Amino acid sequence: QVQLVDSGGGLVQPGGSLRLSCATSISIFSFDALAWYRQAPGKERELVASITNGGSRNYPDSVKGRFTISRDNAKNTMYLQMNSLEPEDTAVYYCNTQTVVGLKHYNYWGQGTQVTISS
């Protein structure tokens, strides 16, 4: 069974930084891709960062240059470093892993961690 536990959220002033963590129950390289999503009240869940096993990273324009996704194979953990945070970044953040086996697509999620940006 694959389990993801994300953590590190909190209350931060505008311009501040946070690092989110996501511990996985198996090797990070068992997955085809790792990602972070966020969902604000009344909004759709939005991709904010992704990384493949080959190291290719992708960010939407809303966070590019401010957020960085990374991984630590020894700890089976992925991270999201968030800098220059803005009130618009307030949301519940979820880590995500994806694996494709034949025609089957396996998608796993953390429970979510709240990030609030406010003065």
The strand count comes to 11
Overall body shape: globular
What oligomeric assembly is this protein in? Answer: single chain
Query: What is the distance, rounded to the nearest whole angstrom, between the alpha carbons of the first and last residues?
Result: 41 Å
SSE string, helices as H and strands as E: EEEEEEEEEEE
Radius of gyration: 14 Å
Average pLDDT rating: 95
Estimate percent helicity. under 10%
- Uncertain runs with pLDDT below 50, 5 residues or more? none
Number of helices: 0
Question: How does this model look, in words?
Answer:
- The strands form two sheets. Strands 2, 4, 5, 6, 9, 10 and 11 form a seven-stranded mixed β-sheet that branches.
- The chain has no helices and eleven strands.
- The protein is globular.
- It is mostly beta strands and 119 residues long.
Task: Considering the chains and any ligands shown, give keywords for the structure.
119 residues, seven-stranded mixed β-sheet, 0% helix, four-stranded antiparallel β-sheet, single chain, mainly beta
SSE blueprint:
Elements: E1 4-7, E2 10-12, E3 18-24, E4 33-39, E5 46-52, E6 57-58, E7 67-72, E8 77-82, E9 91-101, E10 104-109, E11 113-117
Parallel strand pairs: 2-11
Antiparallel strand pairs: 1-3, 3-8, 4-5, 4-9, 5-6, 7-8, 9-10, 9-11
